Amino acid sequence: MSWTDTFVELNKTEHDRESFDCGEPELNTFIRTQAAKHMQAGISRTMVLPSAEPLLNQKYGICAFYSVAPSSISRETLPVTLAKKLPKYPVPIFLLAQLAVHQEFHGSGLGKISLICALKYLWQVNQHMRAYAIVVDCLTDSAQAFYAKYGFEVLCVHNGRIRLFLPMKTVGELFGS
Ligand SMILES: CC(C)(COP(=O)(O)OP(=O)(O)OC[C@H]1O[C@@H](n2cnc3c(N)ncnc32)[C@H](O)[C@@H]1OP(=O)(O)O)[C@@H](O)C(=O)NCCC(=O)NCCS
Fold first, then answer.
1. Residue 116 CA, ligand 1 centroid: distance in Å
2. Number of independent structural domains in the chain
3. How big is the CA angle at 142 (ends 137 and 18), to the nearest 5 degrees?
């Protein structure tokens, strides 16, 4: 399987969700059974990177995916130096709720490509509706190490998971504000 060059919105009839396997059961279950439902419910959007060629069932394999949603965090969870510049209201953020690569491609740079595409996508959304930061909740220590490599910093523990954040200002420096 080789991948195409553009992430597109998940489409149940075009994309083969069953064959996706990133090695993390929770993320496999999400893409197979929940991502489309969440989009239909209007609570998140999932973008997938389809395979270049269709599978035997004529659907396209999913090489990688990410899911995003708007959310907010309590101002008090931010480092004091950042919090003191903000009003005393919940702070709007974009949640990078899921990101995973098919295990066939682990170690081939697709995680980095997927993360850059997700950040770019959210940077574009930010042109229309502002958010203070991008936040991720890490499923594993390994995921935390992956995001830390790209500048995400620890924010707090949320529902038993380490929550990381990257200020939108930093994302702007990447893509040119
Ligand atoms: C985490 C994941 C997305 C990484 O994808 P990948 O395609 O293997 O990563 P890449 O090949 O693009 O690696 C990019 C860089 O990150 C590093 N990296 C990859 N996985 C890493 C990890 N777990 N910890 C630390 N660094 C990691 C690579 O060494 C590489 O560094 P380099 O550019 O200096 O060589 C992938 O392993 C995955 O899907 N895991 C299961 C799902 C998951 O845990 N998702 C996180 C969401 S909570």
1. 12
2. 1
3. 75
